[in-house]
């Protein structure tokens, strides 16, 4: 199953049918695509979305980065609460958000590595940049 994990429908169906699934995505909120695939994502180096920090941060920017990271956890839990509840009912077992996401066979990331901060990724993560790019006029 090729799916986009934003709404979790494809993930739930693939887990229910016990078939492998592939994520095709631009990115998940709260850097879940890195957390679910167990990529190293240190708060002192990798800036969080909407903080406008670079990979070279001052102490206060690192504190801000940590606070935003903790707020992201609360935000993502509330955003995906209904989807996880529905998945638990369908799969007839308690599942968490990361349980659903980390069983992906392949992650096709629709962004280019050069536009992101250099960080290690897992072998099942493939960058396919340029898929959604429109030619400039």
TrEMBL record:
Its principal location? Answer: membrane
The entry lists its GO molecular-function terms as: UDP-glycosyltransferase activity
Output the Pfam families linked to this UniProt entry: UDPGT
Residues making up the signal peptide according to the UniProt record: none
Q: Which terms are listed as keywords in the entry? A: Glycosyltransferase, Membrane, Transferase, Transmembrane, Transmembrane helix
Q: Name one GO cellular component term.
A: membrane
Specify the superkingdom.
Answer: Eukaryota
Bilayer disposition of the protein: Single-pass membrane protein
What SUPFAM superfamilies is this protein classified in? UDP-Glycosyltransferase/glycogen phosphorylase
The subcellular location is: Membrane
Similarity section: Belongs to the UDP-glycosyltransferase family.
Protein name listed in UniProt? UDP-glucuronosyltransferase 1-1
Name its species.
Opisthocomus hoazin
């Amino acid at each position: 199953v090729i799916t986009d994990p934003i709404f979790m429908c494809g993930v739930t169906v693939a887990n229910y049918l016990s078939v492998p699934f592939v994520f095709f995505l631009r990115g998940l909120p709260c850097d879940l695509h890195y957390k679910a695939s167990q990529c190293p994502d240190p708060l002192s180096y990798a800036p969080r979305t909407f903080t406008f920090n670079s990979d070279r941060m001052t102490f206060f920017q690192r504190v801000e980065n940590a606070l935003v990271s903790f707020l992201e956890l609360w935000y993502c839990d509330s955003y995906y609460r209904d989807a996880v509840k529905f998945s638990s009912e369908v799969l007839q077992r308690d599942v968490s958000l990361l349980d659903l996401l980390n069983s992906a066979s392949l992650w096709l990331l629709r962004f280019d590595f050069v536009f992101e901060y250099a960080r290690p990724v897992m072998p099942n993560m493939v960058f396919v940049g340029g898929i959604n790019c429109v030619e400039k006029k």
